[in-house]
Structure formats: C-alpha cells, structure tokens
Specification:
This protein is of the alpha/beta class. It folds into four domains: about 1-50; about 60-275 and about 410-445, TIM Barrel, CATH 3.20.20; about 285-350, SH3 Domains (SH3 type barrels); about 360-405, Chitinase A, domain 3, CATH 3.10.50. The protein is built from twelve helices and 23 strands. A hairpin with a 5-residue loop joins strand 21 and strand 22. Helix 5 (about 145-160) packs parallel to helix 6. The radius of gyration is 31 Å and the shape is globular. The model is unreliable at about 1-55 (pLDDT under 50). Keywords: Membrane, Transmembrane, Transmembrane helix. InterPro entries: Chitinase_II/V-like_cat, GH, Glyco_hydro18_cat, SH3-like_bac-type. One of its GO terms (molecular function) is chitin binding. Pfam families: Glyco_hydro_18.
C-alpha cells in the first residue's frame, strides 16, 4: 500500500498501474527539482542579505603582484576587492651591448594560476624589460631575438593557462618608439590567436623622454587595455615636495590619454604608496662638495658629528668666524638633529628656499603611512591644491615632515574620475602595500557602500 497526498485530501490505493508509478516518480523528481531550486534561491537571498554573495565587478580591478606571491590570490576575489592580478613572471635581462647575452627569465607558476582561477581571478603575467631601454633596443633591432622571446612567452602562457600578458617597458623616448610598437603588435597578434588578453602600461605626459616612447593611439588598436600609470607626479628626484598623484594632475593626464585611447580600453593605475618628505623652508644650507664634515665647533679640531654627501641640506641658523680654510674663516651654523653644528662655507652654499622649501623624500606603502600617522600624531588637513589630505609634522632639526596621504579621500576621488569618464577600470601598484581597508575604498568608490 502506498500513501500519497493530493491537494486538500488524503487517498489510499491498493493497485497502482505502471503509468501511475511513472507519474508518481515524475512528480517526486519535479518536487526535488523545485525544492532544490527554492533552496538555491533562498541561499542566494541569504548570501545577499549578509553580504556573502560573490560579486562580479563591472570593471577591471587589478593589482600588480611584484612578488608573485600566492597569498594575494588565496582568498575569493569578492572578498579581496580585486579581480585581476599581474605577477611579475617574465623579465628580459642580461647584456646591454651584446644581443647574444640577452635572455628571457621565466618564473611563472601553474599552482598560482590554478589557485587564482579557483578563487575568481584573471592572471595577466607581467613582462618587464628591467628598465633598460638600451637592452630593449637590441631586441627591437634583431628580428630573430624578438620573435624568439615572443614565441617563448606565448608558449608558456598557453601551457600554464595564463589569461594574458601585461607589458611594462619604460623606455627613453622616440629612439625605441617604433621598435616597441612593433614588438607589441607581434606579441598581441600571437596572444589573440590563443584567445589571450594583452595590456600595456604607459606613463602620463609630463616627461617627453618617457612619454614619447608610447604611440598610444597605435597601441590601443592592437591591445585590449592601456594602463595609465597615474603616479610619480613627484618622485625620488623631486626637490620640491608634493603628491605622487594629485587629483587634478591625474584627471589631466587621463583626459590627454583619452584623445588617443578610447575610454573602454583605458585603465587607471593608482598608487598604493606615498612619499614622506623632509622639507626645509626659508634659510638653508646645502652641501655642494662631494662630501663635508659636520662638526661640533667651527674648527677641524671640533668633534666630527657626521660626514654628509653632496645635496644634503639643513636649516641655517647663522654664520660665525672660525678656523680659516682655503683663505676663508666663515663657517655656517646649522641645526643638526636638534643641536647646533658647523660646516665650512667652502663646501656648502647658503640659500633661501622660501615658502616652497627644499625637499627630499622616501617612498612608503599605505600601511606604513598609516602607522606613521598614529605614531607621530600628525596634524591632517585638506590640501585644496592637490585635492588630498596632507599631514605635517615638525622635526627636531627645524625641518618639516609632509605627507600627501593616500587614504579614503584620495582613492574615492580617483574612482569618481574613473566612473565619470567611463574608464575600463583601475590597477594598483602594488599588492602588499595596502592596509586592511584600501581595497574596500576602491570598491566603494566604484560601486558605493554595500
């Protein structure tokens, strides 16, 4: 005897024909499917309600993985905040004068690729020329070597299931312009035959020697994406302090790039680092000799506190007479680490740095920046000129520490530009520089707070 239910009543049957059995089995099957479907829908609803639903980002959100560390693809893409990684796996190195000594170093990792795919990431292997335009020119001028390198890359990409290649060559102007464009053209054609993606990193327009290297219009025709490296407005060689990526500067470079590259192919590169600036304002002293000894008294008999190299600068306190050297008894009094010290006028110049000041800097990751803010209890205010927050701290030697902050304000302002101009996405230099909230600011800047 089989008991079953109809809507609103219960019924028993002693004799069930084969057709009825089929009907019941079909009913059970449909019921299971419906139940499973409803359960799946309910699961998705629950995931949505609790923020666990996997996100499919509309934009490319990439991190350059200079260390090629699997930890950066070990969690789900929806949890990390980015969907694409560019590990440095291909590097051209070797001789800068002999083409036979030029080689391609490959460090690609199948386990990395498999883990990345499992967790929802695309992998664009980064190809670097090692910042050597001279070596690159050797390749561009030798068809056999160029094709050999390209073929080796494409074979490796295919063999390991890598999704594409990110080309990062930073050259020296028009000398390499045509050669680089041809190199990318051949690489692009062979990658696309395998259904792979190619992107190329380009600079902004500030420096002709760097900027003119890239034929952006031609590159955009053959590449899936052009990545504008929107940073290093102020860099290690800058003598005036400033942001590595002020908002107006970034937008101006994007708008210039859009004259050559369509927005749906343009990705904005953003810094996950800043620079900590030491700034001397007003009267200062700068070392002009190869080196000079800083002494506790204006005499060679005075205790030597340090030997400092050319370009080092200090706050000027005044001038005094001291031991005569090379026909001059003039010594300058400076603030050295919070104490008065002396340098002879023969080896330095006294300068008025004005309100702009004379600066030197060190690069720091965002996570280090944030630690410094807490430790030093720095004053933070909005700098209207850069569109960023700036932190200022007075040092013991009379100089100032200034940091243009890479924080929620700066990141979200750049994401507003990405949305406003309809760009393809964003890429950050680099993975490992962020703190626990940095990628959250990127995603919220693009899509709003969840």
């Amino acid at each position: 005897m089989i008991k079953y239910y109809e809507i609103g009543k219960e019924r028993e049957e002693n004799d069930i024909t084969g057709d009825k059995k089929k009907g019941i089995l079909m009913g059970i099957l449909i019921g299971c499917v419906v139940t499973a479907g409803l359960f799946g829908i309910w699961s998705k609803v629950k995931d949505f309600e609790f923020g666990k639903k996997e996100t499919e980002y509309e934009h490319v959100i990439m991190g350059w993985d200079y260390l090629a560390d699997k930890k950066f693809v070990s969690e789900k893409s929806a949890e990390s905040g980015y969907n694409t990684v560019a590990p440095l796996w291909y590097k051209i190195e070797g001789s800068k004068s002999d083409i036979d000594g030029v080689r391609l170093k490959i460090t690609s990792d199948s386990e990395y690729v498999n883990l990345a795919h499992k967790n929802g990431y695309k992998v664009w292997a980064m190809l670097s020329d090692g910042f050597s335009p001279t070596r690159s020119r050797l390749i561009f001028e030798n068809e056999d070597k160029m094709n050999s390198i390209i073929d080796t890359i494409v074979e490796d990409v295919d063999a390991k299931g890598i999704d594409g290649v990110n080309v990062d060559f930073e050259g020296d102007g028009r000398k390499n312009r045509e050669g680089f464009t041809r190199f990318v053209s051949i690489l692009s054609q062979k990658l696309k035959e395998s259904g792979k993606v190619i992107s190329v990193d380009v600079t902004g327009y500030d420096s002709y020697s760097l900027s003119s290297y890239y034929d952006r219009a031609e590159l955009s025709k053959m590449c899936d994406y052009i990545i504008l490296m929107g940073y290093d407005e102020h860099w290690s060689g800058s003598k005036v302090a400033g942001s590595v990526s002020s908002i107006g500067w970034v937008k101006g470079n994007i708008e210039s790039t859009l004259e050559e590259v369509p927005p749906e192919k343009l990705v904005l590169g953003i810094p996950f680092y800043t620079r900590t600036w030491r700034v001397v304002e007003g009267q200062g002293v700068e070392v002009t000799n190869a080196f000079v000894n800083v002494r506790k008294a204006p005499s060679t008999d005075g205790e030597k506190l340090a030997s400092v190299k050319k370009g080092t600068f200090y706050k000027l306190l005044g001038s005094v007479d001291g031991e005569e050297i090379a026909g001059s008894s003039k010594w300058y009094s400076i603030n050295y680490n919070g104490s008065e010290a002396y340098v002879h006028s023969k080896y330095v110049s006294a300068l008025d740095y004005g309100n702009e000041g004379r600066a030197s800097s060190k690069a720091h990751a965002i996570r280090i920046q944030n630690n410094m803010l807490k430790e030093k209890n720095m004053q933070v205010a909005l700098d209207e000129a850069s569109g960023q927050n700036i932190a200022v701290y007075e040092n013991g030697d009379g100089s100032l520490t200034k940091i243009w902050l890479e924080d929620e304000t700066a990141i979200k302002k750049r994401m507003e530009i990405v949305k406003e101009l309809g760009l393809a996405g964003v890429s950050a230099w680099r993975l490992g520089y962020e703190d626990e909230s940095t990628w959250k600011h990127v995603v919220e800047g693009l899509y709003g707070e969840k």
